[in-house]
Amino acid sequence: MSNYLGAIDQGTTSTRFIIFDRSGRIAAAAQKEHEQIYPQPGWVEHDPEEIWGRTQEVIAEAMHQKGFRPKDLAAIGITNQRETTVLWHRKTGRAVHNAVVWQDTRVEDDVAELSRNGGQDRFRQQTGLPLATYFSGLKIRWILNHIPRARELAEAGDLLFGNIDTYLVWKLTGGVNGGIHVTDVTNASRTQLMDLSTLNWNRPLLQIFDIPEAILPRVASSSEIYGTARLHTIEGVPVAGILGDQQAALVGQTCFNSGQAKNTYGTGCFLLMNTGTSPVLSKYGLLTTVGFKFGDQPAQYALEGSVAITGALVQWIRDNLGLISTSAEIESLARTVKDNGGVYFVPAFSGLFAPYWQSSARGVIAGLTRFANKGHIARAALEATAYQTREVLESMELDSGNRLDTLRTDGGMVENELLMQFQADILDRDVIRPIIKETTALGAAYAAGLAVGFYKNLNELREKWGIDHTWKPNMDPAVRERLYSGWKKAVTRSFNWVE
Q1: Handedness of CA 206, 211, 215, 216 (dihedral sign)
Q2: Which has the closest alpha carbon to 29: 46, 14, 13?
């Protein structure tokens, strides 16, 4: 009897393998970081081979912890950093270039060129997305146009494209020996090449982007058996769930009903609201995306507010400024001051995402005086996450017509009490942390479990969700609006920095 589910959680900074029991509790877990490669300002890359190596290592380590064997796992789900783009050779399995990461801004000129004819929203009707450096389509085109022989190989049918989910499924299911080339609707919806209404590749867009259709994976649902693992540590286990990381958290938080929303605080910050079986096109700077699709059930769509830099700002303060030696120390440093001292930190390191979509913005620290110290910098860094979340939430309520009474949260930063209390204060809403915090990996496990009958239905999953802690707002309304007004002013100072 297989009593467990496995989940590969391949993120921007690390890869994890988590084994969940039937109740959604963690039975074993392993995690390893991979290198962040910065060839020049604004460029961010990962080594796909390193990611594949880390994936094999964490699977082996987690399986070994409790002596798990492949037969103990009913299925495996995969969740992944989205938009990060890999092209590899079908016959050798080797990538032709490092993976171009979602944060990377090298295609700024392509965004400007395509925006000249029809504006930044020219593809929003079909794809739900504005033209931006964020999405995979232009990253694919960059690799095809700039890497020697890449386009020639693609047109000969020898190259395969995938976001990290596709790359890992192909490797797991045999690679050069019959690996399955597939993605799910959530990841496909982040390429800017998939039509939201048909849930398949849009051929006119492929022509505009100059991308051969032969390199693209088959688009499948988020919950079905794609193939079986050929890796010896999990040999024969069905690979049965794929969800982009933010959609996986939506599933892990059991936001199965229209109007339910969650916010994930990770490298970036991502607020998603389920909008039901019809896509809602945003008028206020949000993305329309696929939330999930379970088997042959209709797809559920979502509105998404994407903030590029939140937890990554804490890492930057640790690694680039050396103000702290571990990320956890940011809270105690921020607590050495009673407020931000008038200091605001806008972390537009790779431009601004929702709701501004200003790829020419760059990071600024505003409001500095001789009074300001490193405690104020730390506090301003944490507060930046909360301000950006409020901007996104306000846009989401305008687009959806729904007022959120509470915000479900997850991700690494929800352990930061100072941030979570400030988030409740600046939103004037209750902020809730669930009992099971690993909601991204859990969502992938849930999708896989549904595909193989490990779980009967969505109600069984809803019953597993419970509250660990609630933060209630406790800030004078006049103070709230004064602080937020200062943030709005600081954001404008970051605009149009790059000519």
Answers
A1: negative
A2: 14
- Cα 200 to its chain centre, rounded Å, is 21
CA-CA distance, 351 to 316, in Å (whole number)? 16
Which residue type occupies 176? V
Hey, which residues does 274 pair with through a beta bridge?
302
Neighbouring residues of 21: CB distance < 8 A, sequence distance ≥ 6 = 3, 4, 27
Task: Answer yes or no: are the C-beta atoms of 241 and 444 closer than 8 Å.
Answer: yes
Can you tell me the distance from the alpha carbon of 152 to that of 88, in angstroms, rounded to the nearest whole number?
13
Quote the distance between the C-alpha of residue 59 and its chain's center. 21
- d(CA 289, CA 187) in angstroms, rounded, equals 9
| Amino acid at the residue 217 | P
Residue 355: cis peptide before it, omega within 30 degrees of 0: yes
CB 280 within 8 Å of CB 402: no
Phi and psi, residue 302, nearest 5°: -145, 155
Tokens at 95, concatenated: 């990538």
- Spatial distance between the Cα atoms of 283 and 200, rounded to a whole number of angstroms: 24
Per the CB < 8 A criterion, the answer to whether 262 and 269 are in contact is: no
Instruction: Single out the residue of 321, 310, 305, 351 nearest to residue 103, CA to CA.
Output: 351
Query: Which H helix or E strand runs over 142?
Result: helix 136-146
Instruction: Give the C-alpha separation, 288 to 285, whole Å.
Output: 10
- 3-state SS track over 292-311: ECECCCCCEEEEEEEECCCH
Alpha-carbon torsion, ordered 351, 43, 136, 490, to 10 deg: -10
DSSP-derived pairing of the beta strands 26-33 and 14-21: antiparallel
Structure tokens at 414: 């929800």
CA 358 → CA 125, 184, 272, 371, 454, distances in Å? Answer: 20, 29, 20, 31, 44
Distance CA 196, CA 258 (A): 17
How is residue 495 annotated by DSSP? Answer: T
Q: Enumerate residues 6+ apart whose C-beta is below 8 A from 339.
A: 379
Alpha-carbon distance 38 to 45, whole Å? 6
Cα angle value 184/81/212 (rounded, 5°): 55
- Distance (Å, rounded) from C-alpha 117 to C-alpha 114? 6
H-run or E-run covering 97? none
For 119-170, write each residue's pLDDT tens digit: 888 999 999 999 989 899 999 999 999 999 999 999 998 999 999 999 999 9
Whole-angstrom Cα distance, residue 471 to residue 454?
34
pTM: 0.88
pLDDT digits (tens, 9 = 90+) for 224-265: 999 999 999 999 999 999 999 999 999 999 999 988 889 989
